Amino acid sequence: MQMNFSSGAHYGSPAHKENLPPSTKRNSFQHQRSKPRTVLGVVSENELRGRSFGQGSQYSRHSSVSDNSQSNLLGCLSSSGCDVYVEEACEVVLAASGRELVSEDSDSEDNALQNQNQSMRLLLELNSSSRLDASCQSEHEDSQLPGETFCAEYADDIYRNLKEKEKKFLARKGYLERHTEITSGMRVVLVDWLVEVSQEYMLSSETLYLAVNYVDRFLSCTTNVKRNKLQLVGTASLLIAAKYEEITPPELNEFVYITDSTYSQKQLLHMEDLLLRVLAFKLAAPTPHLFLRLFLSVHSSCAKTENLALYIAELSLLEMNPFLQYTPSLLAAGAYSLACYTIHKVLWPDALAVYTGYTVAEIMPCLTHLHKLHVSAESRPHQAIRDKFKSPKFRCVSWIAPLEGLPILGTSP
């Protein structure tokens, strides 16, 4: 089947839920789709949908041309068995747990109750940020960020650590010059497909960001990857990211299934092995999503602003240029700033200016590019991200009209 990277495909996304119990996730994999999905080619509806894991499922899987050759990509290393050691995640989160209170004196129940209440108050204090915006706390229950809270006491140290590491995990600008068969448009199709697969399998947003980071870094370190291998690189990247980030990642046969068996389990494992070696097993990449979580723990905002920032940041995954030139922290700052100005007409909160060290002048170039991307999102041929954020779960923020223009630097917003 001839691979077709046409940009005219358009499809819907099912409801996205993160951090669900494993049993709920597994059941959700077998939901029915309302319309077939076009990914890297236009193919007939999946004939294998009644087998194994996908029995009873009505949605189709579309993929690239089948690879019948046994040649190895770039003279790949043999996929001999080896243990995968993953670098410890660099984020530090508060993991406070209640401590059992045991009274030595059986007659001192009142004292035990008082101590228990005191411990509970201490726990609540530890888990609350002193910098929360009181006007937005009523909407905080609609937050789409994970429930853990960054400990305010260590927030500065966390940020400094992530800032030091982020440049080590950047892809090279213009890396597609090293791949004669791959274009930026093909990468857009691949990322759009990864978004939809992440939705179907209810993977977290961080998993998606990591997968895109692995794809870009892998292609930065290799040459002449064939176009019929691009989806294999993306699938293996998502497999690794899910293993790293998810509590219950999809099984290997499910990743084969989403490509309509274009690639075998052996090919996928071989690419996983190659990817890990090329990346030197450095998987704990700071992402814009991670920085956004940190910023929102320091300066909380309303749910609509939060979700709009997440939407704008996720749109930036689609385009290499100009967004590969910006660090994840600057992208997160630009996305938050644009969302905050769109909703509240506040360009960059003073608390975040002090915390991040970024000035409005430093953010403005990235902010300008993000604004252009936001304005053009509705007219783009690939709509998986926009469809995702049309959901009430994300406060329907992709329906919010983009700003007509940005304030001129040096004037009050």
UniProtKB/TrEMBL annotation:
Keywords: Cell cycle, Cell division, Cyclin. GO terms for molecular function: cyclin-dependent protein serine/threonine kinase regulator activity. Residues 1-69 are annotated as: Disordered. One of its GO terms (biological process) is G1/S transition of mitotic cell cycle. GO terms for cellular component: cyclin A2-CDK2 complex; cytoplasm; microtubule organizing center; nucleus. Residues 286-402 form the Cyclin C-terminal domain. Residues 192-277, 290-372 form the Cyclin-like domain. Pfam families: Cyclin_C (PF02984), Cyclin_N (PF00134). Residues 21-31, 54-67 have a biased composition (Polar residues). SUPFAM superfamilies: Cyclin-like. The keyword Cell cycle applies. Gene3D superfamilies: Cyclin-like. Belongs to the cyclin family. Cyclin AB subfamily. Essential for the control of the cell cycle at the G2/M (mitosis) transition. Interacts with the CDK1 protein kinase to form a serine/threonine kinase holoenzyme complex also known as maturation promoting factor (MPF). The cyclin subunit imparts substrate specificity to the complex. This is G2/mitotic-specific cyclin-B2. The gene is ccna1.
